[in-house]
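stage 2 :: seqdesign
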């Protein structure tokens, strides 16, 4: 807000109103001096959300180093098959290596970071046109997620996604990169724990098989007592 100069002889600026205006300006200055760190903490947007058009369910979860980023995956599609009755693939992806991957389970929210307004911002991938967009995500209500995507700075649209807690037929419910779960892009895939072996904890966050226990050593055979010497 910008305040223009106010002349001391202005007809509406009398003593009482001047005091009120001064108090209001002082309060505004005090609010502007509050550091960004004092803002309300971000509401965790993790969960599964139904997109505004009802075409997909998106699982949102923490990812990246120390789980400070936000990733999202398409875990259910209203129309998972193409006109030929085959699973839809990401054929418009600019990366040729990803054009044969299944649309169901692909990653579209790409490691968003928390900004000074307690919102998550970064890039979102739109498989319908194969393009990436700037996006900001936040949750003011427990059951609602606001997703604001921008093609350019002054061309932005917001959507409201609704939280869902059930599982529909065909929905992926397993852990990311695990059985019946979505697939993370390589840079956001869960990392194996340090020192993990082939039989140790898996990279998907699920436990692997424990090493087989070594068999106990067999007890030593008892010694046979020596036969008594024959009498002379």
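stage 2 :: out
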């Amino acid at each position: 807000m910008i305040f223009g100069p106010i002349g001391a002889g202005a007809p509406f600026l009398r003593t009482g109103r001047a005091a009120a205006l001064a108090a209001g300006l002082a309060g505004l200055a005090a609010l502007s001096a509050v550091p960004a760190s004092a803002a309300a903490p971000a509401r965790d947007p993790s969960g599964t959300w139904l997109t505004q058009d009802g075409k997909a369910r998106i699982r949102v979860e923490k990812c990246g180093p120390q789980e400070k980023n936000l990733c999202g995956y398409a875990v259910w599609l209203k129309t998972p098959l193409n006109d030929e009755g085959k699973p839809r693939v990401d054929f418009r992806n600019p990366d040729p290596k990803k054009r044969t991957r299944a649309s169901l389970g692909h990653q579209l929210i790409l490691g968003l970071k928390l900004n000074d307004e307690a919102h998550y911002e970064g890039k979102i991938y739109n498989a319908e046109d194969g393009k990436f967009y700037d996006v900001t995500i936040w949750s003011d209500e427990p059951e609602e997620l606001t997703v604001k995507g921008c093609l350019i700075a002054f061309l932005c649209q917001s959507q409201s996604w609704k939280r869902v807690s059930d599982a529909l037929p065909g929905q992926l419910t397993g852990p990311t990169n695990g059985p019946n779960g979505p697939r993370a892009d390589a840079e956001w895939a869960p990392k194996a724990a340090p020192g993990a072996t082939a039989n140790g904890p898996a990279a998907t966050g699920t436990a692997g098989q424990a090493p087989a226990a070594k068999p106990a050593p067999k007890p030593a055979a008892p010694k046979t007592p020596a036969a008594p010497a024959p009498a002379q």
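stage 3 :: structure notes
- The two ends are 125 Å apart (CA to CA).
- The chain is about 10% helix and 30% strand.
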